[in-house]
Amino acid sequence: MTGSMSPDATGEIARFVSEARFEDLASATVEQLKRLILDGVANAVGGLSTAASRIQGSVVSGLGSERAARVLGSGEHVSVLAASYVNAACANALDFDDTYKTFLHPGATAVPPSFAVAEKVSAHGRDVLAAVAVGYEVAIRVAEAAFPSPERLRQVWGFATWQTLGSAAAAASLLGLDTETTRHALGAAAFNAPVPSVRKIGLEPEDRPLSWTKNNYGWAAMGGVLGALLARDGFRSSRTVLDGDHGFWTMAGSDRFDAELLTAGLGEEFRLGATRIKPYASCRWTHSALDCVRQLRRSGELPPLADIERVEVHTFRELASNFTNPAPEDIVDAQFSLPYLLALELVERSPGRGLKESDLTDPAVLGVAARIAVHHDEEMDASFHHGQMPSRVVFRTRSGKVVEVAVADPVWGAPEDPFTDDDLMVKCTALLEPAWGRAATRKLIEGILDLDRVTDLATILPE
């Protein structure tokens, strides 16, 4: 453990959650939150169409007798716990949901549980914004503080484990829990957190195809909300779950803990500003390679598809070892298959428009994917462990020309090439309209962009 550990880090986090108010959020933070919320809802609605989401929704929707919240995109009213689970699982189903650095999808466990609880309590939009803010912030801080060493990462890793506490924080905020009660909510949520399972979801070639459980964000969202509901009704749990040598970082399987990253600047600075909305429906680790193609196409230097003999991708170990499948079996598997994703980009069916079942067996796509090889560049590993996702792509043509481009970190969505408001509207409209139609989609978008003036969240949600 490093850094000067507060003797009561759990109390500091609990106080931050219980005292969070919309009025304390900077205007830039509010505008970022609205974009993140819109993106999160759109991903949940779009993800509902996948086979994995349909199965989870069918099973989980029957949990609980209350009908206090809705499954986004279906109109079905279910319990708060079921809505938290299903909507969070759907939000990550397409892998189109936002990311923080190399290791979190914070929106999946901040937005869906906030909407579920907000609908139950008829929350004002301002309270929803504050809850989502703490949901992001707590998940990000816990993850950064407990992030394992590179050696430990090769054995055990779990995004959802950390993010469970973000879900609990969001729910506690909307339920109006005081600091002491929020301690117990965080403790109960930590005990509900899923095990760190990333190494067994099927990333390694011998374990393919990928598990539909993916990061298990449904369980993380539900576990966090359950912790808050239990604490609200007087349930006792650990008051110090984040503290000491046996704290949550150890429970989550990490081998190190930087206490300074947990509480430094808490309430004064929001790290959610570094969260990026995804331009492609695939694992963020693949985006630098996809950006290479995008850059060459925009500059006019991309060789004609018919002239490309082979493509070589040089990248960090995680990507080169585990994302090499040219012919994925389903949409989930495709999100982690770099040759296939690059082939889509090259045949102008970009993952930026989402992934489609019909492309999985298309010879035009698979023929290009077969020409793409992925290689490990050891020099890029250090950059990855410092938060970057570098790739270098080499095109070798039949005419003998070699075209090469390198991207140190995903560009589209970064400040130098921002994912604009227009880009966001195109993405979200494409995900929302098939489920809700044009008029209801427009009403929802306008409501979220004006969320601080919405007196009851339920009034902007389509059936």
TrEMBL record:
Please report a single Pfam family linked to this protein: MmgE_PrpD_C
Q: Where is the MmgE/PrpD N-terminal domain?
A: 12-252
A molecular function annotated in GO for this UniProt entry is:
lyase activity
Where would one find coiled-coil regions in this protein? none
Sequence ranges assigned to domain MmgE/PrpD C-terminal in this UniProt record: 280-449
Q: Which InterPro entries does the entry mention?
A: MmgE/PrpD_sf, MmgE/PrpD_sf_1, MmgE/PrpD_sf_2, MmgE_PrpD, MmgE_PrpD_C, MmgE_PrpD_N
This chain's protein is named MmgE/PrpD family protein
